[in-house]
Design a protein that fits this description.
This protein has 9 helices and 13 strands. It is α+β, with helices and mostly antiparallel strands. The chain folds into 2 domains: about 110 residues, 2-Layer Sandwich (Beta-Lactamase), CATH 3.30.450; about 190 residues, GAF domain (Beta-Lactamase), CATH 3.30.450. Strands 7, 8, 9, 10, 11, 12 and 13 form a 7-stranded antiparallel beta sheet that branches. Strands 1, 2, 3, 4, 5 and 6 form a 6-stranded mixed beta sheet that branches. Strand 4 and strand 5 form a beta hairpin. The termini are far apart.
């Protein structure tokens, strides 16, 4: 292609292009022309852009040099992803195609591109989701297998689950709380701190200090509080628990037995707000189910042991 900046036909086509377009000198990357679309996207006037180097508009100038070399060798480049930046410094991703052209009798590169920032973000989000799902599935399979083969105590199994949840969801603290008999308070049975790799227990939260939270525990399937300081279900205990512990977000799963709330699996994010993805909520739900099953099995085992002991005492009395 041969063109000139004074060619009215080229100028009309160039500026009418539905895609941003830039012409640069091959030898030194100097901008020879940009269309109006490029001017708007990059935040630089068309006249001001001419004569500038195009390299400062690349996050990595070497990417431009590699593009130019490929065009020099092959005459064209298609569907090349490039990380570029505006005059103000904001960065974004484009997919570009480039052609070797003659512009005002100089060897130049015509580059046409489109913004794929949102597309790339969606691709990355999907990839991250797939990786999370793979990890979650593997962890749940391992935990289920351990429960089937377990011969230890409920406390040991609970600690394994809490640690696995903390590492899988990458949250700082994961705990299991149990409601007391008057149903006026929940008490921490065990809490795993991923930062210190330590377990602790004993904290308590009363219904009187957080009635809306207790109502949510009894009503909701999941409490995904992305900002605990503003969420009406959690903000009641801001001063007594959340702020002192630096908690910014919580993912809580009520534990139930025969439709009665018996406790809660609590995942606490230290820092600011955090979005809880659907797959993360589902993983926490599955983990809570494992805890509930382990607790019921422990109760049944304990009841069976007590019954066996009582029967043994009766036999001894008869004998």
């Amino acid at each position: 292609m041969t063109a000139t900046k004074d060619d009215p036909g080229f100028a009309r086509l160039f500026d009418a292009s539905p895609y941003p377009a830039v012409v640069t000198r091959l030898s030194d990357h100097t901008i020879l022309a940009i269309n109006q679309y490029s001017s708007e996207i990059f935040g630089v006037a068309q006249d001001a852009a001419r004569g500038q180097s195009v390299l400062p508009y690349y996050v990595d100038p070497r990417a431009r040099e590699r593009l130019a070399e490929a065009v020099r060798r092959h005459g064209r480049v298609d569907a090349q992803r490039l990380h570029v930046k505006r005059a103000g410094g904001d960065t974004f991703w484009v997919q570009a195609s480039a052609r070797l052209v003659k512009f005002d009798n100089e060897t130049a590169v015509l580059t046409v591109f489109n913004d794929i920032t949102e597309q790339l973000a969606a691709e990355n989000a999907l990839k991250a989701s797939e990786q999370r799902l793979e990890t979650q599935s593997r962890v749940l399979t391992e935990l289920t297998g351990r429960h089937t083969d377990r011969r230890g105590s409920f406390d040991d199994e609970l600690r394994d689950i809490l640690k696995a949840v903390a590492n899988t969801l990458e949250v700082d603290r994961v705990s299991m709380w149990r409601i007391d008999e008057p149903r006026r308070a929940i008490h921490c049975v065990a809490m795993f701190d991923r930062r210190t790799h330590q377990f602790e227990a004993g904290a308590a939260l009363t219904r009187d200090t957080a009635p809306d939270y207790f109502h949510a525990l009894e009503r909701d399937r999941v409490i995904a509080a992305e900002n605990v300081l503003t969420d009406p279900r959690t903000c009641e205990f801001k001063d007594s628990y959340l702020s002192p512990n630096g908690i910014g977000a919580m993912l809580d799963i009520p534990l139930r037995q025969d439709d009665l709330m018996t406790g809660v699996l609590c995942c606490e994010h230290i820092g600011g707000a955090r979005e809880w993805m659907v797959d993360e909520q589902n993983f926490a739900l599955s983990s809570a189910n494992l805890i509930a099953i382990a607790a019921m099995d422990a109760e049944l085992s304990d009841a069976a042991s007590k019954l066996a002991a009582a029967e043994a005492r009766v036999r001894q009395t008869i004998e």
